[in-house]
Records
---
Amino acid sequence: MHSRRDFIKKTGLVTGATMVTGSSNVFAQAASEWAGKGKLQLSYKPYTLQLKHAFNLATSSRTTTPVVLTQLAYNGIIGYGEASMPPYLGESHETVLKFLAKVDLSRFEDPFQMEKILDYVDGIEEGNKAAKASVDIALHDLVGKMMKQPWYKIWGFDPANTPNTSFTIGIDTPEVVRQKVKEADPYKILKVKLGRDTDKLMIETIREMTDKPLCVDINQGWTDRKMALDMAHWLHEKGIVFLEQPMPKERIDDNAWLTENSPIPTIGDEAVQRLDDVLKAHKVYSGINIKLMKCTGMREAHKMLTLGRALDMKIMIGCMTETSCAISAAAQLSPMTDWADLDGALLISNDVYTGTTIKDGKVMLNDKPGIGIQKI
Ligand code: MG
């Protein structure tokens, strides 16, 4: 017992709903410490992702993204998870750590009771979707490792069907945009952020350099539906594949009108957070953008995918700025999607895992169990 207390003192590790600080090998030590206990033990630590380029959206700009890395240990096996908190979604290091401190998984002795465990986590408090996703992903990774299979296999998806991922180009000056288009050379499809008064300049600058298919994400930046339809026609002529969240999510009639009249499909992103938003998005958008950080993780993402498919909607799997942990978790669903936007880990300079890779622009799943990642 003494040595355990010393270990806790030395590493700053507290048992139960645990906060871990210090070096990453603390996690490995914690696993052996917990081996054989037959209880789920959650640990977590805050981390800050450094972006390679400042990321400019219609309404914000940033160079870092706060994340929380989680681990779920059970009988010596460890599942990895992650919460990513871009500021506009309202979660932060503080809120995620506060939420995770309330999560007591020691009451569960069977990790395979995922519905029960994740219903408990979801019921602790409203919101906190990224925090919930960090537990969900870690549980999926753990259970996949116990089954010795990756999730795309457990779900029965064909890894050959993964889509190309888009590479995101933020709103910027023509010089920076040209630089990013060069950087995006290996990618088959580019996702361009629009929604300011430079939209046509952005597209023209890119079209001077490449004929690749482009998709555009307006991030609710268009406010006039006639202008939005004019832009949709102009973008159609420029070879744009779809429009993501063209107008504010509250403008349901305007988005539905645009979807009905637009020559290219529309995708709801900000408007589609969780499972019960999928039915609401039907006929308002042509498709939905599923993101683990919006929908509390892989369990609900899989349900959204199934419902969206049943409604004959287009399905896109997206991401925040994330490490290869959350990206690889999302990639497990990608064989059943029309489009993937899983470049989050490519935009950061301090990833802590290897996992899903991108080869010639295509999402590549590996044979490793769970979500298929390893620590760097
Ligand atoms: Mg979006």
---
Amino acid sequence: MQGLMQDWPLVLHTVIDHAARQYGTREIVTRSIEGPIHRTNYNEVRARSMRVAQALARDGVKLGDRVATLAWNTWRHLEAWYGITGIGAIYHTVNPRLFPEQIAWIVNHAQDRVLMTDLTFLPLVEAIADKLPTVERFIVLTDGAHMPQTKLKNAIAYEDWIAAVDGDFKWASFDENTAAGLCYTSGTTGDPKGVLYSHRSNVLHGLQASMVNTLAVSAEDVVLPIVPMFHANAWSLAFTVPMNGGKFVMPGAKLDGESVYELLEGEKVTFSAAVPTVWLMLMQHMQKTGAKLHHLKRVAIGGSACPRAMIDFFENTCGVTVYHAWGMTEMSPIGTVGTLKPAVASLKGDELLDLKAKQGYAPYGVEMKITDDEGVELPWDGKKFGRLKVKGPCIVRRYFRRENEEILDETGFFDTGDVATIDPNGYMQITDRAKDVIKSGGEWISSIDLENLAVGHPDVAEAAVIGVAHPKWDERPLLVIVAKDGKETTREDVLKFMDGKIAKWWMPDDVQFVREIPHTATGKINKLKLRETFRDYKLPT
Ligand code: AMP
């Protein structure tokens, strides 16, 4: 027997409709690419996304067509997402930090028909435009007054483009499983892989992210998503915040410590989300200037492991609650969030920091398990580490245009490529990427644990650990360090700091100092590149 309730498809325009209806005058503030702070609200953003939908339809864009966006977090980018999906077309977020050849590859693979770009990326787009045969029109996310001369095909300023339609339009109707968004994984090896979100998965994920045990976004919140919309859906905030009526603060192109601090204070931000590298810049700014935070209550930190010292700074120096979170593009992206269950709520001091250094537990909608290499499930004892596998309605089933490749195991779980422990309370801790774990004498050493420990040293700004070939042990850890501005430290000093805090055989065999550690386009330490840099390096015997 079937239930007798209404069939109300979970499609994205219901989100912006709801935001306009219930929170219409709630503000959306952006540090615009042109410079000044721009203010709008949900009513206006909905009306303008309707114009985007109408203009796309007029240009012949149809259900299932891909529209690329190379853009920072701004109100226009938000309008573009809702407009594109409102006719059943697909927003394809392109990470502008990728190499131009990679961008061209991705746009071609996605067969994007329209490309929207911020002014910032116009030179980049112009340089590769003749390699993008599928793109019929380029839209520059600015107004007529700021529109530069360009030879791009059918180029038009966004404001002129949406001004040419009257806004009298209805959202298209389609099934909730219709594709809505496309995002390629950064893929340090092999071709990038496209993850194709549906309306249903985005709406469900937006709800999942809203839950009190997840990010707990409410109408009272002022939310600054520093994590870019081109990085795994801005961790769902583009859906979660309008669903819940939070005030939105969009950082545009400026993600440095001073600019972020200015927005946090100036707009009275209560919740923000970013990768550790961004928070590091804020921390350095605050430590240099003595600035304090007066409104911020919670921060989500993820994308790579959040160092313990950073958790300590936010929680104990600033009085800000840290949600350490883990996820991936393939998971829409949220997999776990480190909010507190009753079993751990009374932890204090170091014990609390130890718990917060874990990546948290899975919300409703994510099933998780760890297995050995043979697929045998491992216990949740907080000690055994194994391959982390996941299942849920917002998790990838196939990659785009690789539909004949099976990527789930026989039980329907997706192998994340991460290695983790899960403790008896369900808190998961990433010990490594499967390919970064250091195999010493048949045992595994977690590079992330060593990195976290090393950045706890007062003079260390950033640390990375890679495995280096060793004649007896196969591999041994090499610690690579960037010292804080104006600070000097030595190999001996760092090793002494680490000694006694980890098992003896985990201690790095050597420490090398560098000016900079390479990062990938999504802000993670680029270990592939680091290994190349140290290819000829020999451990001291
Ligand atoms: P991406 O798809 O670019 O978001 O990358 C996903 C990968 O980032 C995951 O599979 C993890 O390896 C890594 N990652 C994300 N969040 C964390 C975290 N909090 N701690 C450690 N690694 C993380």
